[in-house]
């Protein structure tokens, strides 16, 4: 790969900064409120009431505003449970998102990201138990992981396709088991699964544009 091609491949597209900003702004505001720098420590719970994914809203709970039960399928993905949750997800976003956005183009990448956010919420709605709210970008990130794995699987040489497919998936399963154990069961694995499936399906339709020589 030439130096120019390497530079192009390593460029961080604007779409990632947009997603990062949409996640950063609420977390900065809430982090400052948590520390008493402004507002009230109650802000975080209030924002969760309006923006988190609440399974009860799909049943008989009363919404705080019109269409909350629809908007929450996307809004939850831009809220986080604290600075470490935010930081880990954003590092993963740039790690997976940079090569994918460069391959797909920014519009296709944003479509993939949106589909994975929605799929993560759908997975939580269908498989989750109880009434606990859910926030975080991890559903979308597992969708990016699915698209990344699919890309490498399709590009793998003959004889190594199975390895390129199953080893990363087994790694993701092991990661979820480890996180579930270390977090005492407070892991929305349903969101991860839903995001992964949605990301894989979206990647099938969002193939990168053909490149001319």
TrEMBL record:
Q: Per the database record, which ranges form the Peptidase S54 rhomboid domain? A: 70-207
> By its UniProt entry, which InterPro entries does this protein fall under?
Peptidase_S54_rhomboid_dom (IPR022764), Rhomboid-like_sf (IPR035952), Rhomboid_protease_S54 (IPR050925)
Q: What does the UniProt entry say about where the protein is found?
A: Membrane
Record keyword Signal present: no
The cross-references to Pfam families, in alphabetical order and at most eight, read:
Rhomboid
This protein's record includes keyword Glycoprotein = no
Q: Which GO terms describe its biological process?
A: proteolysis
Where does the sequence pass through the membrane? 12-33, 65-88, 109-127, 133-149, 161-181, 187-207
Q: Which UniProt keywords apply?
A: Hydrolase, Membrane, Protease, Transmembrane, Transmembrane helix
Per its record, what are the GO molecular function terms? Answer: serine-type endopeptidase activity
| Matching Gene3D superfamilies | Rhomboid-like
Membrane topology per the entry is: Multi-pass membrane protein
What GO cellular component is one of the record's annotations?
Answer: membrane
Q: Which PANTHER family match?
A: PRESENILIN-ASSOCIATED RHOMBOID-LIKE PROTEIN, MITOCHONDRIAL, RHOMBOID PROTEASE
| Similarity annotation | Belongs to the peptidase S54 family.
Output this protein's name.
Rhomboid family intramembrane serine protease
Source organism per UniProt: Litorivita pollutaquae
